[in-house]
Amino acid sequence: xxxTDRSRADAADxxxxxxxxxxxxxxxxxxxxxxxxxxxxxxxxxxxRLVRPREGWPNDKAVAAASGADRxxxxxxxxxxxxxxxxxLTYVLATTARPRYMTKEVLGPPAAAAALRARAAAGEPCGxxxxxEAMGLDNDDVALASAVLTVPLNPGFSSLNLGMAVLxxxxxxYAAGAAGDVAAAADLIMPEQTRPANQGELLGLYQHLExxxxxxxxxxxxxxxxxxxxxxxxxxxxxxxxxxxVRTLRGVITCLVExxxxxx
Length: 264
Fold this sequence. Notes:
- The chain is of the alpha/beta class.
- The protein folds into 2 domains: about 170 residues, 3-Layer(aba) Sandwich (Alpha/beta knot), CATH 3.40.1280; about 60 residues, Helicase, Ruva Protein, domain 3 (Orthogonal Bundle).
- The chain contains 11 helices and 7 strands.
- A 7-stranded parallel β-sheet has the order 3-2-1-6-4-7-5.
- The longest helix is centred in the C-terminal third of the chain and has 21 residues.
- About 0% of the residues have low confidence.
């Protein structure tokens, strides 16, 4: 295939160790999935996760559009929800071109690449979250992410197709490693007895807290409930909780609830 030197595959694989997963939420066309796979392999990314693809999976159109990136498609994993697709990841960047009016860190491609490389060096599994072609990620999916990644383009026309978006962000990650432009592994002292909480553990905390807030009536206003839930999730997401801290907070919630029940 033009532009491919298979003799250098081992060197490319070494550079790609710790590469982020690419998570496509509700992709609409098989061809776009194939073009994403091609863009991923261009940048040494191989972990493709598909959440509810509209045309089903596997998909012959994706294979045709991948232009030989079969390795990525063959290893792709299928999920029923965004939460399940990112459950094992500790750091997730949600890609969006639209303002979301959430209190969330916003990174451009170079800063995002440095953050991903730093966390990979610290042994943290990371991911990039992409939404459907027509509308992008919904706010609930963005709220699950650690931070937002946006590409500064012409404000009058910043629309990207899915393959282009993956190529731009993937190239920033790949180039950061090729140039040795890796940030310090962490600016957080992490005790040996714990580790950063992954998204599955955070989701368990969110659901635990939200269930009790529903029970006590705090979230009784159905109109404002979705935004209140997203605000709470963003708050805890910015805190960079450890697995031990998540367990502690869940214990606090349980204790408060049981104490209230005993008094009543």
